[in-house]
Amino acid sequence: MAEGAALRAVRGCLAAFPREARELGWTESVPYLDRPPSPLEFYREWVSPNKPCIIRNAISHWPALKKWTLAYLREVVGPKVVSVAVTPNGYADAVFQDRFVMPEERQMPFMDFLDIVEKKVTSPNVFYVQKQCSNLTEEFPELVCDVQPDIPWMSEALGKKPDAVNFWLGESAAVTSLHKDHYENLYCVISGEKHFLLHPPSDRPFIPYELYQPATYRVSEDGSFEIVDEKSEEKVPWIPLDPLNPNLEQYPEYAQAKPLQCTVKAGEMLYLPSLWFHHVQQSHGCIAVNYWYDMEYDLKYSYYQLLDCLTKALKVS
């Protein structure tokens, strides 16, 4: 009897917590800043309270904004072989057929990839340069001089350099499934648009997680894709829900979540705080660079871990 009362109390607290968090700190939309802030201002107003914002005029001095046409990238990178994620449906690192399916990582000349983006060559598959191991510095060092190796005011605010700087270019069919990262993320759009759907960490009680067998897309001899299990790997916790078309019969709790949606346009920078859930779409041929700074594993992280553990415990009960 006492255990049942305790579970009801925890369930009530978890239901109330996201609402109180929104009322205390998060607005109904992502705010804009017209200039990059000072390091102290940014840390105090955005990083510490874990609040997103879109910053204008933060990268207006980058040569990339004028130089990075597809023709320029073809000339500078050209025949160099790079890593390209290839899927049959545009969903890499996503739940499909009760598996957590990773893309085929295809090594191909960059100019061949651009032929597909520019529709000079047709393919039934979806191609996306999205390797996230600091691929800008590792695979595209020719382009670093057109941007910056770090964001100075962010580096000063956090007292560290970014762990990774990533280059993104792909087709409009390439979608990033709902997930979170343990990074402070500065996402800079060079051309085109990125469309973000965001959930604060406090929405965790309404967002489903399941454990899935990891698998990888591989191309068969006839050119079709097959899903091959990575049997030696441990199961992966991932979010099975599509926030654009949620199955509320299967995941009724999600109806209580309140996502924020925003579009980041060319020349703009999104500050995406650590542990925020995000789902991303893009315009065709959108080019972006993002900076991942490792988060502080402080009290905010401990609060999130507690929320996560309580949510899992209620599901088991």
Automatic annotation (TrEMBL):
PROSITE patterns: JMJC
Localization, UniProt: Cytoplasm; Nucleus
Coiled coil segments of this chain: none
InterPro entries registered for this protein in UniProt: Cupin_8, JmjC_dom, RmlC-like_jellyroll
Class of this enzyme: oxidoreductase
Main location (coarse class): cytoplasm
GO molecular function: hydrolase activity; metal ion binding; peptidyl-lysine 3-dioxygenase activity
Keywords, alphabetical: Cytoplasm, Disulfide bond, Hydrolase, Iron, Metal-binding, Nucleus, Oxidoreductase
Cofactor: Fe(2+)
EC number(s) per entry: 1.14.11.63
SMART domains for this protein: JmjC
Pfam family, one: Cupin_8
All residue ranges annotated as the JmjC domain in the record: 129-308
Role, per record: Bifunctional enzyme that acts both as an endopeptidase and 2-oxoglutarate-dependent monooxygenase. Endopeptidase that cleaves histones N-terminal tails at the carboxyl side of methylated arginine or lysine residues, to generate 'tailless nucleosomes', which may trigger transcription elongation. Preferentially recognizes and cleaves monomethylated and dimethylated arginine residues of histones H2, H3 and H4. After initial cleavage, continues to digest histones tails via its aminopeptidase activity. Additionally, may play a role in protein biosynthesis by modifying the translation machinery.
Subunit and interaction comment: Homodimer; disulfide-linked. Interacts with DRG1 and DRG2.
Protein name in the entry: Bifunctional peptidase and (3S)-lysyl hydroxylase JMJD7
Organism of derivation: Limosa lapponica baueri
